[in-house]
Design goal:
The complex is a heterodimer of chains A (about 110) and B (about 350).
Chain A lengths: L4 E2 L8 E2 L8 H19 L1 H4 L5 H20 L5 H32 L1
Antiparallel strand pairs in A: 1-2
Chain B lengths: L1 H24 L7 H24 L8 H82 L5 H44 L5 E3 L1 H11 L1 H6 L2 E5 L5 E3 L1 H17 L7 E10 L2 E8 L31 H11 L3 E7 L3 E9 L2
Parallel strand pairs in B: 2-4
Antiparallel strand pairs in B: 1-3, 4-5, 5-7, 6-7
Classes of the chains: A mainly alpha (about 110), B alpha+beta (about 350).
Chain lengths: ~110, ~350
């Protein structure tokens, strides 16, 4: 079955109309992979808390998982808001990643 | 709205550029290679994804969606690798620490075995030597007794052998056996100090030290010593083992008092951050700075010629017990002026 798609202004991703599929396969795979890593983190949470700057690492990963959820929610009503949130979260994740790299390499360098 | 999103994407892109710069600047840091590589992969994937996002807003007639979509798939995988690599690194470090601790324990054990065998050899040589003397005496006795007509001279010789030579040899043998018994007893106590089950609970040190003081009351009075007990804060530990620690320290303080002046022993305590610190101080003969570390070694007796009894195990047992309690001991002492042992234990 051919799904109807609409393009968002400014080069947004295609999504399907109401009543049909509202997600892309790669988005679902990404979410599954993210949830897989999240489960891995939850299982090994005690050891991960001993990783240098672990709160930053977990926050960066958390924003990535949240962003991947909003990527899927883009296809639902309030799509524009979710799209904004997705981009905000990716940007925030990038900032956290930068802070993390800075912290980890700085800490290792000083030890 | 689109301009806001475009601005956010540019901001995210700049942040990943910063992450890349931090990564390059940190190339010389002593991080494990796999950790460094996976962080680089995560940074690179985020950078490419953000770049694709930014370029989406440009007027380039090329769809960056496939790049963005594929990179998005790689992101959680790389993040998973980052976490996994760190766990591996922690595991490696934990194993290295464990190996180091094991090597240290092995070294200590080897030193104990070496010193114990050395200390056991000396009485053993004595026992062997005097057993041979004993055997020779017995042979001579047998030979004298087998003579058909024992005269006065032979009887005198037998008397000398029976009343002097044999008892003397037996005396030396007994002394050697006693010495070996003491060493073996000490080794057993040492082994117990490192293997006995520890039941950690809050301890009332005032009551504990007071009971030790009562047990050594006779020696305190005999040596005309002033024993001062301050207000001791409670700590966490095993009652029997911590009692052994203070008993050994007070016993040592009494043993090594300076006979030329009245003895003074003071036990005080206070809190320092999350630790309870106790001080057992005396005005005894003191310990030379060069021997401060040596006194905690196994079978260490700084003055073996002195009349003070013991096998030189007391302080080693103390340090072993404290090690098992996450505690520590420190010594401040000056020869001829006295010693102060500072014991640190976790507070309640």
């Amino acid at each position: 079955m051919q799904a109807m798609s609409v393009h968002l202004p400014g080069g947004g991703k295609p999504f399907q109309r109401r009543g049909e599929r509202v997600y892309q396969e790669n988005e679902i795979i990404m979410l599954i992979l993210s949830v897989g890593v999240l489960i891995f983190i939850l299982i090994y949470r005690r050891q991960i808390l001993r990783v240098p700057a672990s709160p930053l690492l977990l926050a960066a990963f958390g924003t990535l998982v949240a962003a991947s959820i909003f990527t899927i929610l883009e296809g639902l009503p309030l799509g524009k808001l979710f799209k904004l949130l997705e981009h905000v979260l990716y940007a925030l994740g990038s900032v956290l990643l930068a802070c993390y790299v800075f912290q980890v390499f700085n800490r290792s360098g000083s030890s | 709205m689109n301009y806001v999103i475009a601005l956010i994407d540019v901001f995210g892109f700049v942040a990943t550029i910063a992450a890349l710069i931090f990564w390059i600047r940190g190339l010389k840091t002593p991080l494990a290679r796999d950790v460094r590589i996976v962080i680089m992969l995560a940074v690179a994937a985020t950078l490419v994804r953000n770049l694709a996002n930014v370029l989406e807003w440009s007027h380039i007639t090329f769809s960056f969606d496939p790049i963005e979509d594929n990179i998005e798939l790689l992101l959680p995988i790389f993040w998973g690798f980052v976490v996994y690599a760190f766990l591996q690194d922690l595991d490696r470090k934990a194993r290295a620490d464990l190996n180091h601790a094991l090597a240290m324990k092995n070294k200590k054990l080897q030193s104990v075995v070496y010193i114990a065998s050395h200390d056991l050899r000396s009485p053993l040589v004595n026992i062997r030597g005097f057993s041979n003397e004993l055997a020779a005496g017995c042979a001579r006795l047998k030979e004298l007794l087998e003579r058909p007509h024992p005269d006065e001279n032979i009887r005198d010789q037998i008397k000398v052998i029976l009343s002097q030579e044999l008892p003397e040899s037996l005396g030396f043998i007994e002394s050697g056996v006693t010495s070996m018994d003491r060493i073996i007893d000490g080794l057993l106590r040492l082994s117990r100090a490192g293997s006995e089950e520890v039941e950690i609970r809050p301890l009332d040190l005032n009551r504990l030290v007071l009971s030790i003081r009562q047990a050594v009351n006779f020696q305190i009075e005999q040596k005309n010593t002033v024993f001062t007990l301050g207000d001791l804060p409670p700590c966490m530990g095993d009652e029997n083992q911590i009692a052994q620690v203070f008993s050994n320290l007070i016993d040592n303080a009494l043993k090594y008092l300076d006979e030329t002046r009245p003895g003074q022993i003071t036990v005080t305590g206070w809190y320092e951050h999350d630790r309870a610190v106790y001080c057992v101080k005396d005005n005894g003969i003191g310990i030379a700075p060069a021997d401060h570390e040596k006194v905690f070694e196994v079978f260490c007796r700084l003055r073996p010629d002195r009349s003070a009894p013991g096998e030189g195990l007391g302080l080693n047992i103390v340090s072993r017990i404290l090690e098992r309690h996450n505690g520590s001991i420190r010594l401040e002492s000056e020869l001829g002026r006295g010693s102060a042992f500072y014991v640190s234990l976790p507070k309640t």
